Structure formats: structure tokens, C-alpha cells
Amino acid sequence: MPSATAQHSSRPVFCQCHSLSGLVADIQRKITEAFEVFDRESNKTVDVREIGCIVRSLGCFPNEAEVQELLAQIEVEEPDGFVHLKNFLPVMTRVLLDKRFRPIPEDVILHAFEALDENKCGYITKEDLVKHLTEKGEPFTQEEMEDMLAVALDPETNTLHYRDYRVKLVVDETKTFPFNV
Fold it and tell me: pTM for this structure?
């Protein structure tokens, strides 16, 4: 008959393994669901250019260089430039389990906007915003710029009041997958 200590010490290992397999299954289900949103042909493949969007839709926030690093780990079907779910799933599962690409903290977002606010007036004009976001760092595409301006600008003043807008950009890790698991 096993001792009480042996029974007690083996029990948490079973629970952790069972819990981990449930977590992995949940993560893989979420990855698959996100992937399928971009799988236009319903053939378990997506255009390689969609990978960054898929990763970000899963609550991760890599920059473009980090997306390229991920792509280097994923087998991309050449020359078509498509990624198959079976190649994406293990890489993205590891990313989510490791809780990589955490959201940017609110104070960092605020400091970034303040750096763009040359007059220190609490807002950035549309023209300045477009200039900064399309000409420096990782430039926004035209489509990304239009999408941001549509939600970020005050329609009456055509300015971005960044102290208000930053709230929309902050991600609460305690409520956001994968950081809340």
C-alpha cells in the first residue's frame, strides 16, 4: 500500500498534467478559430501576410521584426506564400504558452504620444500623426493609417487627443487571453 506522502506528492503532478493538456487544447482551439477567420478558401491555409494579424488577434503584440522571426519558424509553402494551420499551430501554441509579445504598458503608450506632441498641448494634428506614423520607425500602410484615423481622430477638430485615446490601446492582461490563463 502506498504511503500517504506518496499519494499526496503524486496527486499534484496528475492535476498539473491534466490541467496543462486542457490548457493546450484550449489554446489550440483559439488559435484554430483565429486562423479560420483568415482562411478564405477554407483549406487550412492563409496568406503569409495575414500571420501578423492572426497573432495580434490572439492578444499578442509583436513588432514586424518579431513577426518575421515567427515566420522563420513556420514552414511557409513556397512560392505561393501560404501558411498551413498544421505548421502554424505548434509555433503559435508555444508563443501563447510562453506568454510572449506582451501588451505595451499604458505609461509607455502615453510617453510615445507625448514624444510626438511637439507643442506639448495634449493632442496631435492629423497631419503630424500621418507624418510620424508613415515616415518613421515601422511605417503604417495606407490602410492601417486610414483605419487608425477613423477611430482615433476627433471628427470636429481632426486631432488625436492621446490621453483619451490611449485608454483604447491599453490591454488589461488580467482579462486578456493568453495572459490571464
Answer: 0.64
Tens of pLDDT, residues 38-79: 999 999 999 998 999 899 888 888 988 999 999 999 977 766
Note the Cα 138 to chain centre separation in Å.
Answer: 16
Round to whole Å and give the CA distance between 154 and 165.
10
- Residue 129, C-beta contacts closer than 8 angstroms, at least 6 positions apart: 116, 149, 152, 153, 160
| Dist CA 31 CA 59 (whole Å) | 11
Answer for the pair 66, 101: CB distance below 8 angstroms, yes or no.
Answer: yes
List the helix and strand counts (H, then E) for the chain: 8, 5
Closest CA to 82 of 48, 44, 43, 38: 48
For the chain, how big is the Rg over CA atoms in Å?
21
The residues, any chain, with a CB within 8 Å of residue 88's CB and separated by 6 or more, are 31, 35, 46, 51, 54, 74
Q: 85-136: per-residue pLDDT in tens?
A: 999 999 999 999 888 888 788 888 899 899 999 899 999 999 999 998 888 8
Cα–Cα distances in angstroms (integers) from residue 156 to residues 61, 161, 164, in the given order: 31, 12, 15
